[in-house]
């Protein structure tokens, strides 16, 4: 089982508000990072993994910089 599958299971803890991503996905956003609001959720460990992974809730922004979704 890979980290993505473990992350999918954790997202249920956070309800219907935004998308939960890992620190690796956040890094991959690079130049598009300013198109989103990111809320840190903390570090998590996943069964079968030794490293702590930071998780974030991702919210899209409207073009004028305001939130589309309220947390």
Describe this structure as you would to a colleague:
With 71 residues, the chain is of the alpha+beta class. The chain has helices spanning 3-11, 23-29, and strands at residues 19-22, 36-44, 53-60. The chain contains 2 helices and 3 strands. Strand 2 (36-44) and strand 3 (53-60) form a beta hairpin. The longest helix is centred in the N-terminal third of the chain and has 9 residues, at 3-11. The mean pLDDT is 80.
H and E order: HEHEE
Structural class: alpha+beta
- By DSSP (H or I, 4+ residues per run), the number of helices equals 2
How confident overall, as mean pLDDT? 80
Rg over CA atoms, rounded to whole Å, is 13 Å
Taken from the alpha-carbon principal axes, the silhouette is globular
Q: What oligomeric state do the depicted chains represent?
A: single chain
Q: How do the strands of the widest beta sheet line up side by side? A: 1-3-2
Can you summarize the main beta sheet? 3 strands, antiparallel
- Kindly report how far apart the N and C termini lie: 30 Å
- As a percent range, the share of helical residues equals 10-25%
Spans of 5+ residues with little confidence (pLDDT < 50)?
none
Q: What portion of the residues fall into strands of 2 or more residues?
A: 25-35%
How many DSSP E strands?
Answer: 3
